[in-house]
Amino acid sequence: MDTLDRTGRPEAGIDAGDLVREDRIHRGVYSHPEVFDLEMRRIFNRTWVFVGHESEVTNTGDFKASYIGTQPVILTKDENGEIRVLVNRCPHRGSIVCREAKGNSNFFRCPYHGWTFKNTGDLVGVPRRKRYPEDFDLSELNLQQVPRVENYRGLVFASFNPEIEGLVGYLAQAKPYVDAFLDLSVEGEISLSAGANQHEYPGNWKFQMENGVDGYHAMFLHDSFFKIQARSQDRVHARIASRDEGKGWTEAFSNGHAILAREAGDKTIDELKSAHPEYFARLEEKHGPERFRELMAQMNIFIFPNLYLILNQVRVIRPVSPTKTVVNMYPVMLNGAPEELNEQRLREHEEGFSAAGFVGPDDYEAFACVQEGLKAESVEWLVLLRGIHDEKVLENGSRWGQPSDETPQRGQYREWRRLMTMDGEAK
């Protein structure tokens, strides 16, 4: 059966099924170009991929440049208020038509030959059109529409797969946790209006996929940061470091989704109520004491293949090449919250995840170290054994483990293997 040889090079093509076992990952999964290309076609072209939030396109004509895997797309709101996702590629000679990260315009003009498109995708202008044949039909050369676009509570996903199941069904057992992340707003809505910080690291995109639900590394990689934060108990990172009395767990859901979470203990809840009594009183009154306690949990939620909802942020993974990844982190503002609470959330995000922060740069340095280490040809497999001996299968089909177990990663790679070995590809 075709696979990779000891150097990570293909012997005669790639059989992705040979590269992932229940407790092992072959080193070629993270570095080989053919694996990466297959991921873009069979994972990112087939699944629901997060492309943006509705708060980024609130007005008619608003747009944001985004990606589905390596394919550039445009998230935009047309004059009828419909959110569309267009392929950012001129059908004439292939240039992108939108070069700005975000803005407002009802039209996109190709910088190469000046072809102009409405934000519905319709081609409306071709300079010096007389040199084209009389039967030249503009309607056949519109910007391509991504066939499936759905919005779940402001989170906008798109898919090139016209036959994919609905987004709510795709979220599966992760949906209640997504709801909890959003319900921390007393209005049930969040905003990404504070902008984003972007990071790039010299490593494979799946390192970030794995790491956000890895409860094993933090006590070592981020030890110095937690010691600093422990001196200031009003900060969210200090509450994570202290672990207080809350119970932690990991869970692997259907479709590759996962969570790393810790229940909020009484100490955490009391500190939050003390810092912002009026807001959290409103939140508890709206949801009741039991649900309120659930909302206070610390959650890292992964929606396969590219979205994280982590603490105070939305994190988006963009694969660029087998050994290059871009990550965008958006601090989450809670609609209906007092300005001082959202300001505190923003400051905490900056402390941990800005370019000068403590947590994000630690992670990216570790990813670079792993990518470098994978050049060692004599060791072919990475190990995902932690907690496998007492992993529990729950009634809803998800798998449950302890906070430092590799239960989420095994679930991610079960879905990776399933998609990578399916016949056919979304176009």
Automatic annotation (TrEMBL):
One of its GO terms (molecular function) is oxidoreductase activity, acting on paired donors, with incorporation or reduction of molecular oxygen. Pfam families: Rieske, Ring_hydroxyl_A. Residues 396-415 are annotated as: Disordered. It comes from the Bacteria. InterPro entries: ARHD_Rieske_2Fe_2S, Rieske_2Fe-2S, Rieske_2Fe-2S_sf, Ring_hydroxy_dOase_asu_C_dom, Rng_hydr_dOase-A. Residues 48-133 form the Rieske domain. Keywords: 2Fe-2S, Dioxygenase, Iron, Iron-sulfur, Metal-binding, NAD, Oxidoreductase. Residues 399-410 have a biased composition (Polar residues). Belongs to the bacterial ring-hydroxylating dioxygenase alpha subunit family. This is Rieske 2Fe-2S domain-containing protein. It comes from Rubrobacter marinus.
